[in-house]
Write a structure and sequence with these properties.
Blueprint: E1 2-5, E2 10-13, E3 21-26, H1 37-55, E4 59-66, H2 82-90, H3 94-111, E5 119-122, H4 127-139, E6 143-145, E7 149-152, H5 168-175, E8 181-184, E9 187-190, E10 194-199, E11 202-203
Parallel strand pairs: 3-4, 4-5
Antiparallel strand pairs: 1-2, 6-7, 7-10, 8-9, 10-11
Length: 225
């Protein structure tokens, strides 16, 4: 079985880390409104990959997240939370919106004959773990706090941007006036990405697991895609 490797930019033979087990993580829905055909296309692609791996006798552990809080309407970490926007639009509480559209999403995927993931990880079920993980990154100077959010310090990641063919200078030019430079502890950090957003001084999104929570990463090996 051969797959395109984004890092090498080549089609390569697929070699799992712990054969025959394969860990597959796919981005799930932000459940604030109805799906559209573009969503269907994306999840059909995920399903084809999952079924193909299974066809070749791999034991696939498919994990999919559900963003049920903390997704801003802008990729620039600006604007209102999509769930709050959806609640206003449909005249429901955030909880009602999340419950309705989560169920609607998976019913829609069932109608497309898409296999459900082994594990569905909701953001709200892992908040304590998210806080713990982000706190560790800040303590180790891999992230820094600002009034609007906590950002990852990209200067600490030697190969940051390796998966993206666009060079850093091109990113700066594309962003133009939106480009941000933050000097913290005399370090120039460029193009940071948000690890969590702060709403009413409460942490609402990230990744990880705290004691007592289900660690959806257990037994998952990163598939070399």
């Amino acid at each position: 079985m051969k797959l395109y490797n984004t890092l090498s930019r080549k089609i390569e033979e697929f070699e799992p880390l712990n054969p025959p087990k394969v860990g597959l993580y796919t981005c799930g829905p932000t459940v604030y409104d109805y799906e559209h055909i573009g969503h269907g296309r994306k999840y059909v692609n995920d399903d084809i990959l999952t079924r193909t791996l299974s066809y070749f006798n791999y034991e696939v552990n498919h994990v999919q997240n559900v963003t049920d809080v903390g997704h801003l309407v802008s990729d620039a970490d600006e604007g209102e939370d999509k769930l709050e926007k959806g609640a206003k639009k449909h005249n429901k509480s955030v909880y009602e919106v999340v419950d309705f559209f989560t169920k609607h999403f998976y019913r829609s995927m069932d109608m497309l004959n898409i296999k459900r993931p082994n594990i569905i990880a909701k953001a709200t079920e892992h908040i304590l773990a998210q806080i713990k993980l982000v706190s560790q990154l800040v303590d180790k100077n891999y992230a820094y706090d600002t009034p609007e959010a906590v950002y990852f310090n990209v200067t600490k990641f030697k190969n940051y941007g390796a998966l993206d063919p666009q060079q850093m200078d091109e990113k700066k030019q594309r962003l133009g006036k939106k480009f941000k430079q933050v000097i913290t502890r005399k370090i120039l950090q460029t193009l940071p990405f948000g690890l969590k957003e702060l709403v009413d001084s409460k942490t609402i999104s990230c990744t990880g697991t705290a004691p007592g929570e289900t660690d959806f990463r257990d037994g998952i090996s990163s598939a070399q895609l």
